[in-house]
Amino acid sequence: MQPDKLFSRSARLMQPSPIRRMAGLVNQPGVISFAGGMPNPATFPDKDLRRILDEIVERDGSRIFQYGITRGLPEFCELLAGLLTKRGVTIGDGQGLMVTNGSQQGLNLVSQVFLDPGDVVLVESPSYVGALACFRNHQAELVGVAQDEDGIVPEDLAEQAATLAAAGKRVKFLYCIPNFQNPSGVTITPARRARIVEIARRHGFLIVEDDPYGELYFSGVKPGDIRPLKALPEGEDVIYLSSFSKVVTPGLRTAYLAGPEWVIARLELAKQAADLCSSSLDQRLIYEYCRRGLYEAHLQEVRDFYDVKCQAMLKAMEQSMPAGITWTRPRGGMFLWGTLPGGMDAEALAMEAVQHLRVAFIHGGPFFVDGTGQNTFRLTFAKEDVPAIEQGVRLLADFFLSKVAAL
Ligand SMILES: Cc1ncc(COP(=O)(O)O)c(C=O)c1O
User: Fold this and answer.
1) Which CATH number fits domain 62-294: 2.30.40.10, 3.40.640.10, 3.40.605.10, 3.30.365.10?
2) DSSP string covering 290-350
3) What's the pLDDT tens digit per position in 2-37?
4) Which end of the chain lies in a sparser environment, N or C, as judged by fewer CB atoms within 10 Å?
5) Domain 3-45+297-405: CATH architecture, name and number where available
6) How far is the CA of 334 from the centre of ligand 1 (A)?
7) pTM of the model as a whole
8) Rounded to the nearest whole angstrom, what is the distance from the C-alpha of residue 96 to the centroid of ligand 1?
């Protein structure tokens, strides 16, 4: 067999994530890990979910193991519409909703429905590697848009859109993660959200708004400041994705997307061919969890859980990081983003740190689409407890100091 002759063009282009190469080292016992991007299992409500499972099997019997309909269990969709209303997004009136097998499936379906080879997707610099891989697998051309501590820079977005239009390129959508972004922890300001929506409308491309972290805001954040772009007066064409992965558990692959009905109808056809429907059991568990009022109470606990860790990391960074290193101050989510002096190679440092220091972090390069970001890195505060965070940051700070001094 000659695999290269058999694989499709897109399969031949598929690449393993450069971050996964570190996985073996990062997960060794004794390593303080600021790498990885997974929610902390201590936040998973396993006892409640087990009790609910027992009760619904007892009550409904084998019925709950049946196929469901492609858009999602109707009562669950109704509940999700209610959650979205609280965020300012109204379903109905030309807008639809569909449950997906994680937001990752939502991104893949959106790519399948909108992207032809060579189409342009605008992405934040840096952006989520899982989405970049998905767009690449659909042979899109990825163009980075500048981002600062207030999120996407609207002037750069407008300029990129104009340049691409002048070059005859077709921009299909802007992919953005407006709240506590993975990887940077940055949040787009309300004023910029409105400008971004206006620019997209003016240039005729869609916005794919990926919001798995929006509910994970820390104390002091006003929910009004992180309202979805889709909730804006001109945001009706925005495709909005959200997920229970970070706030309940990623093991129940349950997420949802909202968008114009003409988009949802086409995504539904793509999903039918992909998996017929999302797991009925997973949906029912999350539905019951929310219906019983457990979700709201749990959310507050999860926010506090990550808030404490984030503050511990930020304080340790302030106290020990050498001059010349900068970092973001996330107000929610699971990540912060650091920048080393220009010319430093974060990938080599990450390898050395995990092997010799037993502290793991992720180098920033793979989150960029233009080969930049070699001197950047991502830290997650999700995994370790506060003493380990303090110790790990101190070790990293001393390590970086020795490298900066040797420059
Ligand atoms: C920005 C972003 N979008 C989507 C996902 C995928 O989430 P899900 O578990 O819902 O597929 C992740 C997971 O890390 C993420 O960080």
Assistant:
1) 3.40.640.10
2) HHTTHHHHHHHHHHHHHHHHHHHHHHHHHHHPPTT-EE---SBSSEEEEEPPTT--HHHHH
3) 888 899 988 988 888 877 777 777 778 899 999 988
4) N
5) Alpha-Beta Complex (3.90)
6) 12
7) 0.97
8) 21
